[in-house]
Amino acid sequence: METALRHLSQQEQINFLLTNRIPRRALTQFIGWYSRIESPLLARLSIAAWKQFADLDLSEAERQEFSSVHACFTRRLKPDARPLDARPEVMVSPCDAVVGECGPIAGTTVFQAKGFPYEIGDLIPDAALQEKYRDGCYATLRLKSSMYHRFHAPVDCTVDEVRYISGDTWNVNPIALKRIEKLYCRNERAVVPLHDTATAGSICLVPVAAILVASMKFHCLPDELDLRSRGQNRIRCSASYSKGEEMGYFQHGSTIIVFATSNYALAEGIGQGQIIRMGQALMTDTSYAAPAPLPREAVSPTT
Q1: Residue 227's CB: how many other CB atoms inside 10 A?
Q2: Is the pLDDT of residue 82 over 60?
Q3: Percentage with pLDDT > 90 across the chain
Q4: Domain boundary assignment for the chain
Q5: pLDDT digits (tens, 9 = 90+) for 12-34
Q6: How far is Cα 214 from Cα 29, in angstroms, rounded to an integer?
Q7: Confidence band of 76 (pLDDT split at 50, 70, 90)
């Protein structure tokens, strides 16, 4: 047993070194350029190699042939591939993901991994937003490289701004999360406050970039957000989404952290390590009260 644990620790150390102790930004920019080369043959070869190292499944994809690796990364799915939980009290997952740390927020403290806490304010440099999610609920959703990379509205909502924060491109896999303190707070990320139009609560999505993926596309913005941006950018917009409607995509795969106000709690069965699909219940509004049934009209007796 001791030998097996030592071997596992050595494997994790090698993984960490290979995916982090390299020129992260340069490699990320190279992969961004390479993935957009328009060559069906190069795309087929690259995808075949990708399948050797990841559980890539394209059976749900709208198309099976791609002109570039980027087109495969950002593929759309067949209609109805992701059934939507339409219950009004339910917030659905905005993406396909592996559920990471999640649960109630302890004041304004959350976790990236066991023993690695961080403050909401370190991730979202806005005191008002940090206070809004005090004692609320959160869920960390990690998109593996092989997963569907588009993200969707978790509730009926409007968006009036996207805040883009420049940063690093550390790997966000569990091995790195156990080694790098406040990793999410170091990486490129966007802050997307959602104005929930169905409940009295509030939700914020924080897509976090990582090595090989530091490009995010929001349909409400004219341009992609990527490593060319510097510092904090507060970009105004005006968009309205129905629950399940597509909001944008990652170039490759990364993480979305979902923050919600205290009227939300994790949906039944949601826990760390679970695979969740876009459209499945992620959180539930515990304050939701179903509308009272309309009174039956008086029926006049027949004569």
Answers
A1: 18
A2: yes
A3: 54
A4: 90-285
A5: 444 444 454 555 566 666 767 77
A6: 8
A7: very high
Closest CA to 188 of 146, 232, 218: 232
Gap between the Cα atoms of 276 and 137, Å rounded: 17
What local confidence, expressed as pLDDT, does residue 176 receive?
81
Q: What's the 3-state SS for 160-204?
A: EEEEEECCECCCCCHHHHCCCCCHHHHECEEEEEEEECCCCCCEE
* Range list of H helices, 164-303: 174-177, 183-186
Structure token digits, residue 74: 């950002």
Q: How far apart are CA 112 and CA 181, in angstroms?
A: 9
Q: Are 92 and 244 in contact (CB under 8 A)?
A: yes
Burial (CB count <10 Å: 0-12, 13-18, 19+), residue 62: exposed
In order of 86, 93, 120, 276, 277, the CA distances from 83 in angstroms are: 9, 11, 32, 12, 9
Of 70-74, 167-171, 193-197, 204-208, where does mean pLDDT reach its minimum? 167-171
* CA 151/CA 157 separation, integer angstroms: 14
Instruction: Give me the amino acid identity at 277.
Output: R
Model confidence pLDDT, tens digit, residues 104-135: 999 999 999 888 999 999 999 999 999 999 99
Burial class for 249, CB neighbours closer than 10 Å (0-12, 13-18, 19+)? buried
